[in-house]
Amino acid sequence: MQAFRHLYVHIPFCRHKCGYCDFNAYAGMDRLMPAYVDALERELAFARERYPFQQLETVYLGGGTPSLLPASEASRLLDFIRRNFNVAPDAEVTLEANPASTDAAKITSWMEGGVNRLSLGVQGFDPRALAVLERKTDGAQAERAFALARELGMSNVSIDLIYAVPFQNLRTWLVTLRRAIALRPDHVSTYCLSFEEGTLLHRRRAEGRLPEVETDLQWDQLDAACGELEAAGFRRYEVSNWALPGFESRHNQAYWRCRPVYGAGAGAHSYATDGEGAWRWWNVARPREYIAAAPSPRADGEELAARKATAEALMLGLRTADGMTAPHGFDAELGRLQRDGLILRIDGRIVPTRRGMDLHNQIALAVL
Ligand code: SF4
């Protein structure tokens, strides 16, 4: 098994469950936080003994809402990671933050704990779109949190936005993009809203209380994001991600390049490989069960045979603008994708075209 150089830590707590969210996130469980951080420490210490780790290049605290952790718990966790793992001096250490739970004291404690990249869950600026998404934050709060992070010296800040929201038209989406760009972030992620089964939004749409978003409008909104962000100097380096030069997310690139990533915490997934086959496993999802199961909270896992592992690597590699070296054994699939104008061959590499990025689901269907 190749050594882990990337660590993901899941913080499953949220103030409120947003209507579109199908992440492993829970509201009303804040009092579990200290016991949860204890459990994370147990899992991480156990994993450190059991699996090969080398110097960590990235650490990512995701959720849920990591910014909900009290500053003392976040500091304790970050300190534990630094004391028990060899975190590279130039490692990318990201924390996902919700503007509503971001304040000066927390930002300072995150930075003291080594966080050097903030991923701010803005999602939008248009009150109507935020209301559909059931977000409890508003645009002004997001702008305040962003400004505060910059003021306190956070040099790498990313913003998440969601498009294809019912009632969001092209004009309001353009205003959203422009307000986001005006903040001068280093990185922007734009996600197309999906209606996942089991969410409130899915139910509302099924009951006819939310309109469908026309495919043409979704396309126009994606096209607008490409135009506005590229004009502002961002490069679309992955299907849903734009960065200023040098600000591409190193942690997410580890996923797209199928590098081993250890995932700690409730419901977290780990991926390991020996360079041919691969293994994936995941932890029990519910925080209380996770706390009871730590240090060994694994729920289940699977082994990926070499062909399946390569197909996944191909599907993920073709999410990125840089693409990858063409793997053996997929000539027929790659030939078809090339004929359909979804990929190109450049200097021995295969890369997605703009059309291939926009229609990446067709690439995934062809290779998996
Ligand atoms: S804040 Fe994020 S993780 Fe939490 S419920 Fe909302 S969308 Fe889900």
How would you describe this structure to a colleague?
The chain is an alpha/beta fold. Helix content is 40%, strand content 25%. The chain contains 14 helices and 17 strands. The protein has helices spanning 33-50, 71-84, 104-112, 127-133, 139-151, 170-182, 200-206, 215-231, 250-256, 287-293, 306-317, 331-339, 354-358, 360-367, and strands at 4-11, 13-14, 26-27, 53-63, 87-97, 117-123, 157-163, 187-192, 235-238, 241-243, 261-264, 269-273, 278-283, 298-304, 324-325, 343-346, 349-352. The strands form 4 sheets. A 9-stranded mixed sheet has the order 9-10-8-7-6-5-4-1-11, with helices on both faces. It has a 3-stranded antiparallel sheet with strand order 12-13-14. A 3-stranded antiparallel sheet has the order 15-17-16. A hairpin with a 2-residue loop joins strand 16 and strand 17. Helix 1 (33-50) packs parallel to helix 2 and helix 6 packs parallel to helix 8 (215-231). The model has no long low-confidence stretch (mean pLDDT 97). Residues 14, 17-18, 21, 23, 25, 63-65, 98, 121 line the site of iron/sulfur cluster.
